[in-house]
Amino acid sequence: MESAIEARLVNPSFGDPGVYVKFGARGRALLFDLGDSPGLGARDLLRVSHVFVSHTHVDHFIGFDRLVRTCADRSGTVRLFGPSGFVTKVERRLGSYTWDRRSRDGNGLVLGVTEIDETGRTASAEFAARSGFARTDVPAGRVEDGVITDDAAFRVRCVTLEHRTPCLGFALEEKARARVRADALDRLGLEAGAWLVDAKEAVVSGAADDAPVLATVRGPAGPRPTRVPFGDIKDAFEMLPGRKISYVTDIVFNEANLARVESIARDLDILFIECVFLEADARHAARKQHLTARQAGVIARAVRARQVVPFHFSARYTGREAELRAELERSWRAT
Ligand SMILES: [Zn+2]
What we know:
This protein is α/β, with parallel strands linked by helices. The chain has two domains: 5-175 and 243-333, Ribonuclease Z/Hydroxyacylglutathione hydrolase-like (Metallo-beta-lactamase, Chain A, 4-Layer Sandwich); 178-240, no CATH class. Helix content is 26%, strand content 33%. It is built from eleven helices and 18 strands. It has helices at 42-46, 58-61, 64-71, 86-95, 182-187, 195-204, 230-233, 255-264, 282-288, 293-302, 321-333; strands at residues 5-9, 19-23, 29-32, 48-52, 76-83, 109-116, 121-128, 134-142, 147-150, 154-162, 166-174, 177-180, 212-219, 222-229, 237-240, 244-248, 270-274, 308-311. It has an eight-stranded mixed sheet. The chain has a six-stranded mixed sheet with strand order 9-10-11-16-17-18, with helices on one face. Strands 12-15 form a two-stranded antiparallel sheet. Strand 3 (29-32), helix 1 and strand 4 form a beta-alpha-beta unit. Helix 10 (293-302) packs parallel to helix 11 (321-333). It is globular, with a radius of gyration of 23 Å.
């Protein structure tokens, strides 16, 4: 299925955790976790509009510096989300550097930072490059149904999971999109143009057949903008369903965590999930509050994932990657 989303691990499976999601060929991108990510270039980071941080253990957050350094001179807002205490952690991290104040016609980078606690309460602050990344608090709020971002192209939900510290799990839902069928456009005597943007929105929002749409219609005197009923042109479009992706890492395996993951992630196209230990080391995994490959497979099966991408392999299995993958596969495919 064609999709506007391209999601990939930022590192090999033994490296720091993280997933990079790109929207469209020239579009923007978002990140799940900010570990060390030598595989991401400046161009990749400059596209990033949203960052979702599970928790701030160093392997999930040390990449924050590189993101800020790379983006400090760009304009616009990068939104970051994390668990309880996140805003202060960002403030301290930014406060450990000396910043030259940047005055580019009042523009420049703004970091919009939000933390979400296990009851859904949020606290937010903004840090602008032009003021040396000083903290400006934003009124507290509350998330509904776990939704922390609701954008024209995608929606992200989070849930607080149990690790040695509160840790967020995330689910991204790409919104349904309309695609133009070039052959139908021709057949209906329509000319491609900027009007297609609004028409696609009408398709996605399920406009009534008699709703007026401004289209460019070919006539004897050439193409002209003409108001036509939506029903006359709707065959020029087809709907593409959005994809669902989830990112789950650093959790202890228990019923409560499984239920919480299921509350945001079901019928997934891709589940990115940690697979830190082999089941033979399950007691050690429980102590460390990480998943074994078998446990990750149980979760993948419960959320009906169609594809599973494991990561966060423990260094103790260097050279034994195949065993981790095989154990996950067996558990996920078990009936
Ligand atoms: Zn970790």
